[in-house]
Write a structure and sequence with these properties.
This protein is α+β, with helices and mostly antiparallel strands. It has one domain (5-23, 33-189): YbaK protein (Alpha-Beta Complex), CATH 3.90.960.10. 25% of the residues lie in helices and 32% in strands. The chain contains 6 helices and 12 strands. Strands 1-2-3-10-9 form a 5-stranded antiparallel sheet, sandwiched between helices. Strand 4 and strand 5 (90-97) form a beta hairpin. It starts with a strand and ends with a strand. Mean pLDDT is 85; it is low at 1-36.
Length: 190
């Protein structure tokens, strides 16, 4: 296993990874089941296998974009808020900046649907293995199409919960867009 640089920063622990720190012996995350609580290590492994540079932060549980930005030390605008919605019972993954809200009319037009609703906590757990607020922005890991707001796509770095309310990742937005295979649209409003 490659060495990991650890820096303790209250109230979170930061671990740094770059493309030189890969573990070729790891099994494919695509083959692994994703029971509740297993998403964070699966995502971490998946990102390392694909050569992404990122910072992993372990911190006290956070439940709002404001709390997350504060504990991560990042601007709220850099927060990648991941939402799972159902468009006529078809799940989609929508990623917005932490300070914005989904524009339902715009998203319905993009998806070509009249019906749009948020996934229930039970549906969310079934689809992603995550509880509300913990879903990472990589919907493609769960077989969901990913739609990203254009404002977020213009950031240099983004930060997001990584399958847990107490684990976050900060990474380059360009890497996120490439790895998530996201479609970029105007999806949010103030």
């Amino acid at each position: 296993m490659p060495p990991v640089n650890r820096v303790s920063v209250a109230p979170c622990e930061r671990r740094w990874y770059d493309d030189a720190m890969t573990d070729s012996s790891a099994t494919s995350p695509d083959d692994a089941p994703s029971p509740a609580g297993a998403v964070a290590p699966r995502l971490e492994r998946w990102l390392r296998e694909r050569g992404a540079s990122f910072r992993l932060l372990e911190h006290a549980p956070v439940f709002t974009s404001e709390e997350a930005a504060r504990v991560r030390g990042t601007p709220r605008e850099a927060g990648a808020k991941a939402l799972v919605l159902l468009a006529q019972d078809r799940p989609v993954h929508v990623v917005l900046p932490g300070h914005r809200r989904v524009d339902n009319a715009q998203l319905r037009a993009i998806l070509g649907t009249r019906t749009l609703r948020f996934a229930t906590p039970e549906e969310l757990l079934s689809l992603t293995g995550c509880v509300p607020g913990a879903v990472p922005p990589f919907g493609n890991l769960f077989g969901l199409p990913v739609f990203v707001d254009e404002e977020l796509s213009q950031r240099d770095e983004i930060a997001f919960n990584a399958g847990s309310n107490s684990v976050s990742i900060v990474m380059r937005c360009a890497d996120f867009l490439r790895l998530s295979e996201a479609r970029v649209h105007r999806l949010s409003k103030a």
